[in-house]
User: Fold Protocadherin beta-16-like from Cyprinus carpio.
Amino acid sequence: MSVLCCFYAQRGASSTRISSWLMQPLVLCVFVMAVARGAGPLFSIPEEMTKGSLVGNIIQDLGLDVKRLKSGRARIFTEDSREYIGLNVDKGTLVVKERIDREELCAQVSPCSLHFQIILENPMELHRIDVEILDINDHAPVFTRKEINFQISELAVPGARFSLDSAYDPDVGLNTLQRYTLIPTDYFSLKEKSRSDGTKYVEMVLQSPLDRERDEELKLTLTAFDGGSPQKSGTVKISVTVIDANDNTPAFSQSVYRVSLVENAAIGTVVLTVSATDKDKGSNGDVTYSFSQSSGKDVDLFRIDENTGEVCVNDLLDFEKSKQYELNLEAMDKGGLTDNSKVLIELTDINDNAPVISVISFSSPIPEDSTPDTVIAMLNIKDIDSGKNGQFKCFVNSDLPFRIKSSSSNFYTLVTDQILDREKMSEYNITITAIDEGLPSFSTNKTLTLKISDVNDNAPVFQRQSYTAYVMENNSPGVSVLSVKAHDKDSGNNARISYFLEDILVNGVSASTFISVNAESGEILAVRSFDYEQTKEFNIRVKAQDGGSPPLSSNVSVKIMIQDQNDNAPQVLYPVQSGASVVAEIVPRSADVGYLVTKVVAVDVDSGQNAWLSYKLQKATDRALFEVGSQNGEIRTVRQVTDKDAVKQRLTVVVEDNGQPSRSATVNVNVAVADSFPEVLSEFTDFPHDKDYNDNLTFYLVLALAVVSFLFIVSIIAILSVKCYRWRRERIFYKSGANLPVIPYYPPLYADVGGTGTLKQVFNYDICGTTDSRKSDLKFVRPCSQSIISLDNDGTQTLTHIQEHEKISRNTDNQVRFEE
Assistant:
């Protein structure tokens, strides 16, 4: 079985890759080999051998040779990391590798052995080696103390036992502790005993009575021996002090001590000194003093010097807690004999307590409309001192609207003395003072914080008597105009203010169509966009109302000023621009320099600098002939008019306001430089029209033609549809009965128009066109029963179609108007 396991392990080791499952058979194989071979050889060596000492020869004991040790790479495996034994492969011997201390290695365990294995490879072998470590007597017995002291009374009876310290020896077997001896043995003998674990201990037994007068102190030596060779031992000194016997008791000088003491005696104050005597001599005559436990808790307030008998104050005394103290004293000598006495201490009262103010009930807050004599608090005031030290008086500050009333012994009430106003003082710190009549006197202050609850007795007050807000026109709806703020001296809900817009009329409509007010913040918002040209200012009223019950309110007037924006261009009033006529100013050729041709009159509906107008000449047929006054718009000649100057002069004047950004308007001024009217007429009959006007007129003519054409096509389709429908009905009637007369059907309100269609009435569509579209005339569709009129391009009614086509009129200001 051993050979099979090794073969399997060698086969696994020869493979290129050893897996974890392959290691399990290998370990099992080693274990089987060890079991098969049994326990290895056992070597014994003493402890403390030097390094390199020979332990044993494994070649002889294991039947191996040096060649096998080398080829098998023999090595030692220990279960712990420390190796005490080493292997010399060249010689096949085991040697000491490290110092071995049996007591350190095994302590008291016996036998003490080292166990390790020698491992060889190819084939793998495992040999167990056991090395027993033999103890040597390298430790002597040791006592823990160098000297043992006893104090034994001379009255101790023979047979009394006194336990002694045991010695300790870490060696084992014969080398460990074996026996004890005690010398001298005049008064004491030694008795050895064993514990349950086998260890030994000794007791010292008194054999004969002690006599302090003969031997006041005894010196003994205790020796412990082990069983080693050579034998080792340890000793300890024993000192016995014989205590004198006490046969006399102490005696106090008085059976009762009486003393008077003020209650404010400082800690450490000497109250009295007691004394007791003892007839014994030496330590038996020394007396110590103490308080008897029967003194109770009072003993904590005083202390007594155990040697001198001096009684002192140990804690604060209080006459109010106890007027008298009784202390039981005890005097004891060294032998434990005692005597008792008593101390009576009477306390004298002093004024050491201030009055105590206790609040039985306290009402806070109280409403500000509370009537005088309203009870605020009930008080209990007392002073635990006696006599005049316990008498007192109490009061409050005179500047407060409160006073103290006595209701019964030691009971007082705090009441109001005036009408309260929370808005003036919302909280009072009322200090109640109680002062006794002792010398020196003591006083106590008690401060009560009284809150005054609010009553809604104040209406909201706006920060200003009136407000003025400025808002730019063309504002966005919802923009903030102004925030009004009101303050209410009340508190809580009584001071919670809501803002409302009073429903008044502004320019005949409700103010709510202009302005809204945020109820919480008082922010005034614009409901719509304002137009300065329509409304320059308006007034509203805002109401502030608190949340009290009943609520109080106040109003404030708010003036909204609309600020102008430059949103309107200048408008030219003169000369009038008309699309159907041409106005020309006549300048005689004899006009001098500075001749006033005309004046451009313009207005701007804006205000301020937005309405400040300036004039300048933008274009002119002859810029060297005319100029425009920048402030007044007057057109004057710059030089003398000559015959070379053209009759037709066209000036383009720009009127510009002073806004940011500025807006402007242009006006065309026609000037005729001529001395006679026929000359003017011949030049201005074909005066070019305004291009914009021509474009607009052409657009509307084309649009009218498109609409008329569409209606005409729809009418033709409708007529054809009706004709087809009537024809099919006639065919049906014809087929149903040949003898039935055929009656044509005409829908009501329709007239036959010669087979071309049906309309309610006859409409005429006449368009009179010329090569110049500006002179074309459009006659709107009218029934035949109505008169036909024509419209100018400005939408006004003009001459009928049969009237004359043109007429000429001259105005009184040398103006010539040409109308079509």
User: Anything to note?
Assistant: The chain has a mean pLDDT of 79. The radius of gyration is 69 Å. DSSP finds seven helices and 57 strands in the chain. Residues 344 and 564 are 106 Å apart (CA to CA).
